[in-house]
Design brief:
Alpha-Beta Plaits; 3 domains; 16% strand; 15 helices
Length: 450
């Protein structure tokens, strides 16, 4: 009987679903645009930010309640289902977004409480309504705390939509101020809401991923512009000031210069933005590693793939240990860009201030000479003055250090996921990590290839 009531007017059901979907897509796009404008433009003046905050509140709590009240008091047939679903969608939507104050979150839940009261006035204190109320708001709290997860996982979002709409409609009385709702009409309401969320979240998930991709590209481009603006002259002035201070106070001064190995190959193979992603990842890895050492340090990203480290009032052993930790952390890390995991190694030259040094340039030149020795020793090593302190001193690539590994290529969309191809993966053995890793260079000598 219920299924007959639902599908005897299937064209009308499809039309309502389409209308709800188009409304949902337009609303979520407009709401997200205002949310981004508010949360990512913190430099705006206070009045503008307050206006945006008020717009977010009006778009959800007030607009949602207004739609529901109009549906209850002015639409006295099953068409009210569509409007009430719109209201429920509008009031649940902000739970997917983060960055709201406690007062704003409280107002979002208060709007849902009022919406629940308007729909359940006739049986508000019945056992099924009370149990439904508790479960409904329990799911809403879970939705609020895991909003980004549901924005990224379509199936989970559809499941929550079905649960929330089911609790909202099936616990409501048959006779309300808005009219009479049979079991079939309630089922239709749940299906309408679930179909709307399925379409809207499916469309929005794609838009959200494209938006994230665009923001990542913008972030990488901004990083490059920022690194260009941080001129060498500015770093030089700061280094000269630090050098003068440690000479005056007779404190230790350890200086290191680091260069990422074969970095131009990364730009050539994966693109310039991939290179910027690696630079951001390396900078983050260095800072996280050095923060754990609790040493006083400064890191300068000079240009491109070159970094400088400064340790003041620390012994040679302490500084070298910290630098070695950074070197190891970088070579163990794979930096992600799109679908690529990019491995990189570094060469580092280290020195300490001497009594004979007259300026920071004397220190810099000695560290640069140590870096040149590191590169002549096959890269991926640390040299303190003229001594290799980490890495291999072997200049020649050995055949035993390389191996091919076979890997199947499967069609995961076909039944049984059949294997269609095999591919060979070249890997190099890292004796320090004692594992096979992606080689820093694929340029093997002819005799090794044969």
């Amino acid at each position: 009987m219920i299924s007959l009531q639902i599908f005897e007017a299937l064209p009308l059901f499809i039309m309502r679903t389409m209308v709800e979907c188009f409304f949902g897509i337009g609303f979520i796009q407009y709401y997200h645009r205002i949310w981004v404008d508010f949360h990512e433009n913190e430099a705006d003046n206070r009045d503008r930010r307050m206006t945006l905050r008020l717009q977010l509140f009006i778009l959800t709590a007030l607009v949602g309640l207004f739609i529901q009240l109009c549906a209850i008091y002015y639409v006295h047939n099953d068409a009210a289902i569509m409007y009430i679903n719109w209201a429920l969608f509008v009031m649940l939507l902000p739970l997917l977004f983060a960055g709201f104050s406690k007062i704003e979150v409280g107002s979002q839940f208060l709007a849902l409480v009022i919406a629940w009261y308007l729909q359940h006035r006739q049986n508000l204190f019945s056992p099924q309504a009370l149990v439904g109320l508790v479960v409904f708001f329990g799911v809403a709290v879970f939705l609020k705390t895991r909003g980004e997860f549901f924005m990224r996982h379509w199936a989970a979002g559809i499941g929550v939509a079905a649960i929330e709409s089911g609790l909202f409609w099936f616990t409501a009385p048959t006779l309300t101020a808005g009219g009479f709702y049979s079991a079939g009409e309630k089922t239709q309401a749940v299906l309408l809401f679930t179909c709307m969320l399925a379409f809207v979240l499916g469309y929005w998930l794609r838009q959200f991923q494209e938006d994230q991709r665009a923001r990542e590209i913008e972030r990488l481009a901004d990083y490059e512009r920022g690194s260009q603006q941080n001129s060498y002259a500015k770093h030089q002035h700061e280094l000269e000031s630090m050098f003068a201070t440690v000479r005056k106070d007779h404190k230790g001064f350890i200086f290191a210069t680091m260069d990422l190995d074969n970095f131009k190959q990364i730009n050539t193979r994966f693109g310039h933005l991939a290179g910027n992603a690696v630079l951001i990842g390396v900078t983050t890895t260095i800072n996280e590693t050095l923060t754990r050492t609790h040493l006083k340090y400064r890191v300068f990203h000079i240009t491109g793939e070159e970094f400088n480290f400064v340790f003041t009032d620390r012994t040679k052993a302490e500084a070298v240990t910290a630098i070695t930790s950074c070197w190891q952390a970088i070579r163990k890390q794979e930096f992600q860009f799109e679908q690529n995991n990019i491995a990189v190694t570094s060469s580092i030259g280290v020195t300490e201030v001497r009594d004979s040094d007259r300026s920071i340039n004397d220190v810099y030149m000695r560290a640069d000479d140590a870096l040149s020795i590191s590169k002549r020793h096959g890269r991926d090593s640390i040299v303190f003055d003229k001594t290799v302190v980490s890495g291999s001193e072997n200049l020649e690539k050995r055949l035993a250090d390389y191996s091919y590994f076979g890997q199947g290529v499967y069609d995961i969309e076909a039944t049984g996921q059949p294997k269609y191809y095999h591919e060979l993966l070249l890997r190099a053995f890292d004796p320090l990590q004692k594992r096979w890793i992606l080689p820093d260079s694929f340029e093997l000598p002819a005799w090794m290839q044969i």
